[in-house]
Every structure is written in C-alpha cells, then in structure tokens.
Amino acid sequence: MNQEAVMALSVIGIIAIICQWLAWWIKLPAIVLLLIAGIVLGPVTGWLDPEALFGDLLFPTVSLAVAVILFEGSLTLKFEEIRGLQKVVRNILTLGVLITWSAIAIATHILLDFPWALAILFGAIMVVTGPTVIVPMLRTVRPNAKISNVLRWEGIVIDPLGAILAVLVFEVLLSIQLQGHAEVGHTLYMFAKTIAVGLVIGAIAGYGFGLLLRRHLLPEYLHNVAALALVFGTFAVSNEISEESGLLTVTVLGIWLANMKNVQVENILDFKEDLSIFLISGLFILLAARLNLDSFTQLGMGAVMLFLFIQFVVRPIKVFLCSIGSDLTWQEKAMISWIGPRGIVAAAVTALFALRLQDIGYDKADLLVPLSFAIIIGTVLVQGATAKFIAKRLGVAEPEDSGFLIVGANSVARVVAQALNDNGFRTRLTDGSWSNVKEARMKGMDTYYGNAVSEHADRHLDLIGLGQILALTPQSELNALACMRYKSEFGSNRVYFLSTDKEKDKERSIVKSRKAISHDSHVLFGNEITYAKMASLISKGAKIKQTKLTENFSFADYLREHGRRVTPLFAFNPRKRLRFFTAAESLQPEMGWTIVALVQDEGDLTPAEMSGPEVDGSLDENRLPS
C-alpha cells in the first residue's frame, strides 16, 4: 500500500479521536468538531482528497460503514421502551415523512429556485434525522426517557426509509430525463420490492442468528465478528436483489435481535458501539473533506432561509401534528421539535446522487452536496449548542450524573447515604437483603431490591443521574465484582470500595478491587477503616457530624480537637465539589470546605484508644492520608 495512503488513514484516525475527546471535554456534539476538521483537512488546506485516497472504493466503504452504524443503533431499539408512544413513532415515520418531504421540496424550489425535480429529491433526502448525530447529542443533552426513546427510534428507523424514498425519487428522475416520462407502475413495483426484500432478509437473518446465540451454537469469541460479517453479507445480498434495500435489512436485523427472547446481545452491542464511534468519526471527516467551499457562496441567503424554515417551521409542525392524542407534555413536544439534526446518511446519499445527476445533465445538481452540508452543519451547530440549555429550561433534562450508586443497604451504607443525602447529593442503594432495603426505604432512601451485578440489575437498575459507585458491603467478592462491573459505566476514577473486616478477606478484597480499578486511592476511608469497624462504631452510638473550616479553624485544628474519635468520610467545597478520604490520596480540605465524619463520644473510647498517639494535624497513616 502507498505510504501516503497509510499516513492519511492514520492521521484521519488520530484526528477523529482527538475531536471526540475534545467534544467530550467541552460538552459539545463531536460532529461539530469532526466537520470542522474535515473542512480544514480538505478544502481549506487541500491535504486530504478522499477520491484520490479511496478511488472507486469511497462510496462502497461509506455504504458499509453506514450499514454498521444503523445495525448498532437498531440493536438498542426495544419495543418495551416505547410503550404508550408507539402511535407517536408510527406517525412520525409516516405522516411526519410526508409533511417534511413536501414542505422542504416546496421551500427549496421557492427559496433557491431549484428545478422541481431536484427540489423533490432534496426533500426526500432531508426527511432523515440520523442516529450518527442524534445519539451523541442525546448523551450530551440527557433528556428524559420519553424524549430519548422517540428521537432514537425516529433517527434509526427513518434513515433506511429516507434512503429508499430518495432512491425511488431518483429512479423517477432518471426515467423522466432519459425516456421523457415517469413509469409509475415500475416505481411502485420497485418500492414494494425494496421494502419486501429488506423486511424478509432482515427477519430471516435476525431469527437465524438469534437461534445460534440462544442455543450456544457459536462460541462467544466469535459473536462480534460473526455479527459484523452477517451485517456485511446481508447488506450486500439485499442491495444485489434490490438497490438500497440493504439499509432496511440491517435495521430490521438489529431490531429483531434486540427484541428476540433469551438472546443476549450486550457484548455485540458494546463492540458495535465502539466500532460505530470510530466509523462515524472517520466518515464525517471524509465527506466534509469533499466539499467545495465556492459552492456555498452560490447558495447565498437562500440556504440560510431554508435552514431556518426547516428548524422553526417544518420540524415543530411535524412533531406537534404527529403527537396529537399522546401523553407527551408540551415541553416534551417542544424538545423533540428542537432536536432533528441531519447526519451521515443524508450526506452520503446526496453525494452519490449529485454525481449521477450531473452526468446526465441536471441543472444545479452540483449544488445538492453543499446545500445538504449547509443543512447538516446548521442543524448540528444550532441544536448541539443550545439543546442542553433548552432541555434544562423546559425541565425535561435528566439530573446530572453526580449521584452515587451504593452497593449495600446495611447500617454502614445507610449512614453514608444519609450523610450524602443531607448535603444534597443523590444516592440509590442496592441490596439483595429485603430487611436492609426495607430499613432504607423507611428512612426515605431511594433503593433497588436486588443484586447490583445481576442480569436483572442490567435491565432494571436505573442509573440516570448516578455517576459514582460506593461498594459498602461486608462481602469482599461482591465489592470487587461491583467495582469491575461499574468501572466501564462510570470510569475507574469514580469507583470506591470499603475494606472488609476479616484480615484474609480484607486482603483479598483489596487485591481484587485494586486490580479492578488500578489504584489504591479508591479504598474508602483508609485500609484500617473496615466494614466491621464502621459497623461497630455505629452500633456504639457514633454519629455523623459535619464541620465547616474557617480561617481560624483549619483541618489540622479539626483533627487536634477530635483526636481518635473522628473518622472523616468526605469533604466538599462551597460549590459542592465532593472528595472522599481514601487510603492513598492526600486530601487536605481548605477554608470554606465542609468535613463530614463519623464521630464517637469521648465516653465511648476504650482505654487503649484514649492512650493512643497524639494527633498532630495529620491523620494516622494507617487510617487516612496525611
């Protein structure tokens, strides 16, 4: 392979990941930065030329990548998630498509003076709202479950339907240009054939692969690669039988697997999510690099007016009409109306059709691609920059992930949870013991009855608003498993556990958990503060007390005053930034911070404790950081 091609592909991958990281850091949809990167690499600097890099393989590569993205998205579509909203989704995919198609076609013809044929084709392409931009946007915006489910279903299912619709319109345009008239019968036949092929092949492939997984006829290490090969195979076969039916096929395949009973697709989904992020990143850079900036000047204010019409007129009318009679509030309808960005399918389909229409002599066909990207960039930038703010103002955003999942609802867990709750931090306790859960519920705590590392928890434990985990059970193995399970969910720097009481178990627990999270600092309250010691202190009457440090009362003064009676748990500053006392991290709260600790009365100290070493302003090295 040419060394320049290797270098170009490597640079695309590196820049794509940098864009994703920066987007996560500044809390913006990654698509914004990816588009900017593609424009800089392509038309601005001229360094990247996708046609020269891929040649004739460019659009086949794009098509296969889009197929993988749609399959991954469809694996998340479960019918049970849209109970009560089926009518809304159905209306959006039928009536909503017609509203969007006709309105955009008319506006494109009037505002940009496009020929009716191209305006109708562009309207068909713009009915899509792709998952490539909606799903990342939802991660950032965090709207409630109703809004998220409606937008995900719309974005994933409407992509193949929009592509099929665009192909049918394109076939009509070809027949008119080449034969002088449209063959209505042939068009209807092609439409029915495309839908039938997509549904049948997708359902058969989904059912067959589901049986292999359900009956364990395929080794686990082949699940991911077999699913990827199946997506490529069914996509290619479907397109061979009926052009552009492949996208519908892989969507049906994913939906079938997601809703088939006793079929585990979590590992496949995890793999496809990682792959999709990489593919989406690369695709947007490549397609943006193909743009001709001079074409944007030819569009003028007409493109801006068209974007504003789509954003502020077409989308709201579509959503409010399609949701009549549903239980969606007006705030939820308004939020759904605001989020409707166009994505990779619109860009890819437009680029493909524009080339072929230019070849047969359609006037202004060369403006389809820049107009499509103008709408994509406009919707992504405006909605990505404002959606989170609007969601909060409308009251439809989920709470920030600053809460704590606490594994255990025992006496220690309840005391820690109460201390967090009293200071405005959200908690959810989980326990397999009904008596522990009952005690927590009687104190008004949010609970989940069940094992936090079970399959039932994977399906039913609500993690919305939670961003850290505290493993506070007396079982070292459960603490370690919980750390490993939720490390990928919250990040290794947000996983904490409490040492157990038995020396042997404690050592094993610490080893396992440290392997799981790779850092000693996540041992809560210090190695010598075990579950048994905490439970003993609580049973003897130790209470949670909090103290605010001032200019005249420092952390050292606090330690000297309380001596060995105090077990500091956590501290937070005036902005509610919370830090735990851990085994290795040196935490020195400053003026203005509030310390929350478990404090014994002096009368509860044993003679050995009373005669222990003096506290000189730092915590005992075996208990807490100095």
UniProtKB/TrEMBL annotation:
Matches recorded under Gene3D superfamilies: 1.20.1530.20, NAD(P)-binding Rossmann-like Domain
A cellular component term, taken from the record's GO annotations: plasma membrane
Transmembrane segments: 6-24, 31-48, 54-71, 92-110, 116-135, 156-176, 188-209, 221-239, 275-293, 299-322, 334-355, 367-385
GO BP term (any one): proton transmembrane transport
Record region (Disordered): 606-626
Intracellular or extracellular location(s): Cell membrane
Mode of membrane association: Multi-pass membrane protein
Protein name from the UniProt record: Sodium/proton antiporter, CPA1 family
Lineage of origin: Bacteria, Pseudomonadati, Pseudomonadota, Gammaproteobacteria, Thiotrichales
